[in-house]
């Protein structure tokens, strides 16, 4: 059964580790992430962006697929199904469809409007027992065609949003989605410390987990980050393994064109990447 992300994140915050959110794109992705979590006895959050939701045939399709896998693959570790960077309408749709967690990203609104809309979504999410992630300071990089500048969130604004009763808070600290450029300055740890100071117990979320050096990940966790989002890195691993399969001509040998064979190396590559991240985040054996 899907669970809210609340307990797993509070436990992670107290235990000084982070739970990974791995974005899913299709059946292979979902199965790879779930099996990696089960094999490593780790809690996990499946992230679905609005674009990925459309791609997979709608939120209800995803809920059906994930619930089916939880049962048939005998997944017993805590799993949350979470909308990533949701709009107001998207948040309402996933709540209706049966997700167990939702992000309402109001970071592109004025702080007053962000507060107002976040408040409304919290109320609805709470009634249904879902966890809610809010965002202050837009995360840079490109995701689903939305390009942000990578702002550093204002600690006082973070406090205003945290005090609304959000389950978890994403705050920009120089992190961006996708690959980091050569001249990236790194995470802003003094901003993170100030945000932690201002927001108290709320587990913090680090977006853009792809390509952040290990020491920075560890430092972020020590400063209150309890959830780390990874998307691009699984895509890169999948693409690389699939490319190798095709380039070595395996699809042309025997039944190598069978999608169950063709997608197998990519599937294994996602599993390996997820495991690597769970080790780094410290969530193994924390289920
Ligand atoms: P990356 O694609 O950089 O790993 O970021 C993922 C993310 O933050 C999803 O919200």
Supply database-style keywords.
two-stranded antiparallel ribbon; binds 1,3-dihydroxyacetonephosphate; TIM Barrel; eight-stranded parallel barrel; alpha/beta; 287 residues; globular
Please explain how this structure is put together.
The protein starts with 5 loop residues before the first helix and ends in a 6-residue tail after the last helix. It is globular, with a radius of gyration of 18 Å. It has helices at 6-15, 27-39, 50-55, 59-72, 88-97, 111-127, 155-162, 189-199, 214-222, 232-247, 259-262, 264-281; strands at 19-23, 44-49, 79-86, 101-104, 131-136, 141-143, 146-148, 168-171, 204-206, 225-230. Helix content is 47%, strand content 17%. The chain has one domain (6-281): TIM Barrel (Alpha-Beta Barrel), CATH 3.20.20. The protein has 287 residues and is α/β, with parallel strands linked by helices. The strands form two sheets. Strands 1-2-3-4-5-8-9-10 form an eight-stranded parallel β-barrel, surrounded by nine helices. 1,3-dihydroxyacetonephosphate (13P) is lined by residues 23, 47, 84-85, 177-178, 207-210, 229-233.
């Amino acid at each position: 059964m899907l669970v809210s992300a609340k307990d797993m994140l509070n436990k992670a915050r107290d235990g000084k580790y982070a739970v990974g959110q791995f974005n899913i794109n299709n059946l292979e992705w979902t199965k790879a992430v779930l099996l990696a979590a089960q094999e490593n006895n780790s809690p996990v959050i499946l992230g679905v962006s609005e674009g990925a939701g459309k791609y997979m045939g709608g939120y209800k399709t995803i809920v059906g697929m994930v619930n089916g896998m939880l049962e048939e693959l005998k997944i017993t570790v805590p799993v949350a199904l979470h909308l990533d960077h949701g709009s107001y309408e998207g948040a309402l749709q996933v709540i209706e469809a049966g997700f167990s967690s939702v992000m309402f990203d109001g970071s592109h609104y004025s702080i007053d409007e962000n507060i107002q809309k976040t408040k409304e979504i919290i109320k609805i999410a709470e009634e249904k027992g879902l966890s809610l992630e809010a965002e202050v300071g837009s995360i840079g990089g490109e995701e689903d065609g939305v390009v942000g500048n990578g702002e550093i969130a204002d600690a006082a604004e973070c406090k205003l949003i945290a005090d609304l009763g959000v389950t978890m808070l994403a705050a920009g600290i120089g992190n961006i989605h996708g690959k980091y450029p050569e001249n990236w300055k790194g995470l802003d740890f003094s901003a993170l410390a100030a945000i932690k100071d201002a927001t108290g117990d709320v587990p913090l979320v680090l977006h853009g987990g792809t390509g952040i050096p290990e020491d920075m990940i560890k430092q972020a966790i020590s400063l209150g980050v309890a959830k780390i989002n990874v998307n691009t890195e699984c895509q890169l691993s999948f693409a690389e393994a699939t490319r190798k399969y095709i380039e070595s001509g395996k699809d042309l040998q025997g039944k190598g064109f069978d999608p169950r064979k063709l997608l197998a190396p990519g599937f294994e590559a996602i599993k390996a990447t997820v495991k690597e991240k769970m080790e780094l985040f410290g969530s193994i054996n924390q289920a």
